[in-house]
Amino acid sequence: MKLVTRFEAATLSTGELHGLLKEAFTAFATAPRGSQERRDALASIQNIESELAIRPPGL
Length: 59
What we know:
- By secondary structure, the chain is mostly helical.
- It has one domain (6-54).
- Helix content is 69%, strand content 0%.
- The chain is built from three helices and no strands.
- The protein has helices spanning 6-10, 14-30, 36-54.
- It starts with 5 loop residues before the first helix and ends in a 5-residue tail after the last helix.
């Protein structure tokens, strides 16, 4: 999975972020331990969740 940066997350809709969050969880769960793919998926999850946390509910 490609790393989703904070900047990229800020440009996406809430629906798109939820879709990417699902993809990131799947990528994290299936990537080998210690791999770059797993680290990127985890960083993406953190970036997406941070962006979702600052958005007002319902947007």
